Amino acid sequence: MTTLADVARQANVSKMTVSRVINHPEKVTKELHDLVTQAMEELNYRPNYAAKALANNRTQVIKYVVSEDMDTTDPYFMHLLTGISRGLSEHYFSLQVVHEGDWSVGRADGFIFTGLKNEDYLELETLESPLVVFGENDFGYDFIDVDNITGIKHAVEHVYELGFRNILYFGIDRNEQFAHERERGYDEMMQKYQLTPKKFVMENRSTSACKVANELFEDQKLPAAIVCASDRIALGVLRAAHDSQLRVPDVIAVTGFDGVFLDQIAHPKLTTIRQPLVKMGTRLAEIIIQKIENNTPAETINEFFEPELIVRESTRRKK
Predict the structure, then answer these.
(1) At a CB cut-off of 8 Å and minimum separation 6, what does 199 contact?
(2) What total number of domains does the chain contain?
(3) 198: closest CA among 211, 207, 189?
(4) Is residue 85 part of a domain?
(5) Is 83 helix (H, G, I), strand (E, B) or coil?
(6) Of 164, 168, 184, residue with least CA distance to 176
(7) What pairs with residue 114 in β-bridges?
(8) Measured torsion, CA atoms of residues 202, 207, 213, 214, in degrees rounded to the nearest 10
(9) Which CATH number belongs to the domain containing residue 36 in this structure?
(10) Cα 46 to chain center, whole Å?
(11) Can you tell me which residues the record assigns to a coiled coil (predicted)?
């Protein structure tokens, strides 16, 4: 049976160094980490993380709590989960997904929350374990998010540069920070271009957007561009345009927000604002592990990731 001492001899380092690489990889150089990891792989050495967890009174479990509806046809959460699981597995933590259940049942070393409503934050006050939130909040909790304001600004700027002056906004009818920020981005660009805002809010469902769009197309001045707060909403607008036999993008240009699969199966393919969800998921894992290991900086962590405009056929005219 391979021991810690065997790994140390193989890597030509001390046992203490091997232990530090295993237990605190964030405290060693990449060169040293790679050297010891290679020796472990060559000797097929597997650290006893159960013993480590027991000694440190830990579970090696992180709970990922989803406090909103999960559409099984939308891989949004799967992309985020992929990033989280990759980040946790590098430090030998397991991931437990809790969907709108009692997340306080069972022990965990830390929590990652997403989809929290304002009233949900009251429940976090009694939580003693480290936590991080996916989504901007004003309650003082560490979070990461995409820059929602900038994302919508990119979309509005894009359709404006295409020559559209009748620019509508289809927002999400939810009293949450991300929805307000996306609407704010639209408002600021309308003010910049001295255009009249035309805003409509609805459920984050393609069927809701389709219904609203069909009603608008009956008396709306065309051509028009519709900037949508999500890809789901944008899909509904595209369906309504098809039903009304309106040419996309010549008569109706459409943009979405998220950039996770739905934009690629739309017809025509959807111009969207892509969130780097896998990268953000990995960062969530890094933050919660840092907090568990007490290596978190004193200041609150508020990080915004840059969104990317992906131009496709729903706004790009054929040459």
Answers:
(1) 168, 169, 171, 183, 186
(2) 2
(3) 189
(4) no
(5) helix
(6) 184
(7) 66, 134
(8) -140
(9) 1.10.260.40
(10) 32
(11) none
